[in-house]
Specification:
Structural class: mainly beta
Strand order of the largest sheet: 4-1-7-8
Largest sheet: 4 strands, antiparallel
Distance between the termini: 23 Å
Number of strands: 11
Shape: globular
Radius of gyration: 16 Å
Length: 136
Amino acid sequence: MKQIKLVTSVERTPVGNLAGMVRVSKTEVEIPLGVVWTPLVIKPHAQLSVSDKLEDKAVVWTAKLVFKTCGEFGDRGRWAYRVGLSNGQYRLIGTDERPYPVASVLENMPENVAENQLSEVTVTWQSPHFIPSIRE
């Protein structure tokens, strides 16, 4: 039976905090103990899509995370993202190695105050490895 998976939380940490991360299987990683994740304020529910494509005889995996926030997104440096799902699972976007996730922010300033004024953040990441779940 297929489980419903909704994004319930988004957190981030500097990619350097993931040094020592271990890929325990094709689909799972273990992250170092003591990594501090900063929660981001999001409007429920964010959208996470994971896709793959064959490029130059190699599979490239792409994660795209889109969420709306009323908070200040802040520094767009090198961040990794932990995405919490409604089934209790966490997916990891990014590692301490290149390529790093890229975030872009669309600030919405509508002409009418009744319209959506939330900023929309899009995080994309491409990897030669499957976008992993975090083993807790």
